[in-house]
Amino acid sequence: MKTFTFTRPDDAPDAIAAAAQATTAQQGAEVRFIAGGTTLVDLMKLRVETPSQLVDINRLPLDKIEALPGGGLKIGATVRNSDLANDAAVKRDYSVLSQAILAGASAQLRNMATTAGNLLQRTRCVYFRDPAMPCNKREPGSGCPAITGANRMLAVLGTSEQCIATNPSDMCVAMAALEATVHITGPRGARAVAMADFHLLPGDTPQRETVLEPGDLITHVELPPPRAGSKHAYLKLRDRASYEFALASAAVVLEITNGTVTRARIALGGVGTKPWRSPEAEAALADRPADRAHFRQAAEAAMREAKPQSENRFKIELARRCLTHALETAAKS
Length: 333
Ligand SMILES: Cc1cc2nc3c(=O)[nH]c(=O)nc-3n(C[C@H](O)[C@H](O)[C@H](O)COP(=O)(O)OP(=O)(O)OC[C@H]3O[C@@H](n4cnc5c(N)ncnc54)[C@H](O)[C@@H]3O)c2cc1C
Ligand code: SF4
Prior knowledge:
This protein has 333 residues and is of the alpha+beta class. The protein has helices spanning 12-19, 40-45, 81-86, 88-93, 95-102, 107-112, 115-119, 171-177, 195-198, 279-285, 292-302, 314-332; strands at 2-5, 31-34, 53-56, 65-67, 73-76, 181-186, 189-194, 217-223, 231-237, 248-257, 260-269, 276-277. Strands 4-5-8-6-7 form a 5-stranded antiparallel β-sheet. Strands 9-10-11-12 form a 4-stranded antiparallel β-sheet. Helix 10 packs antiparallel against helix 11 and helix 11 crosses helix 12. The longest helix has 19 residues, at 314-332. It is globular, with a radius of gyration of 19 Å. Flavin-adenine dinucleotide is lined by residues 32-40, 42, 57, 77, 81, 104-105, 109, 112-114, 116-118, 120-121, 168-171, 217-218, 245. Iron/sulfur cluster binds next to loops.
């Protein structure tokens, strides 16, 4: 296996051209970018990912957090998760993002993990991570043993007959509630994709997890200008207090005037096949009193389409309670 290190902005087109030789931007690609390596190296050790070349992007100048002229925030692709969570502007204006990142992984992992790497982390489904087992995501057409097997941790929203794997990210749930935009450059030029559209539902092609094409490099993520007076909360429920993925999580950005919700942005983690923005919950709260009864109604709306598997029915009520509590926490903050 070869590794290339790119150090200057001028090198980026070469890196992209090399990566564009890949057959897909995700599973099975011959050429892969490597950032913190905390997802990719693990999967290479398991022989789930077997690239022949790695392109090290750590020396590209993509490691800054910058204020945008219009008031938003530009987060470089290689900004470490720990730097992002502890950035003064993020803690002040986008605290749901800081809370979500700090609820994930461990301090050591967050010191290595990057913004783009986190966007592209892969499912923790045990069958996906075991090349001895069939898995439609790893090997399209081979089957999905999780549907009749160990599915306690897996999704209840956005599933298909081909795949029920959960997206494991905490950061992405907060970015969904914040309506972030992912910026990409690739062989076809630069483009911007709304966070809600960046991850794909599994459908019949669970091997395709995002809109990235071969050779695409994420350059940065933008957050819109902060909403004055908005109230933020991220709540993550899991099997143990740290170093564990979510069974259910909720990211909430609320605006309340005179006891009435004027705007709500809500996303769920641990229950969806992608970071799960919930327009249903947001609509259920609009112009309603900011009280527990209405928060619970919003949580019911969020989980209305949930489809449980043999071992994860409990997640539906857990997610309702998680969201209700997150809304109460945000309202009181
Ligand atoms: C033990 C453990 C526990 C964890 N717990 C949690 C948790 O509780 N919550 C949570 O959210 N996460 C958790 N994680 C996941 C962790 O957040 C991710 O591994 C990390 O964010 C990935 O970032 P990275 O920079 O290391 O990615 P890498 O491993 O370097 O890359 C990941 C993928 O992204 C691609 N890539 C990287 N940068 C770019 C770019 N700029 N453009 C295009 N493609 C790119 C790579 O090719 C690769 O496919 C855990 C991980 C471990 C190992
Ligand atoms: S749920 Fe998805 S990732 Fe897990 S075994 Fe089925 S196809 Fe593979």
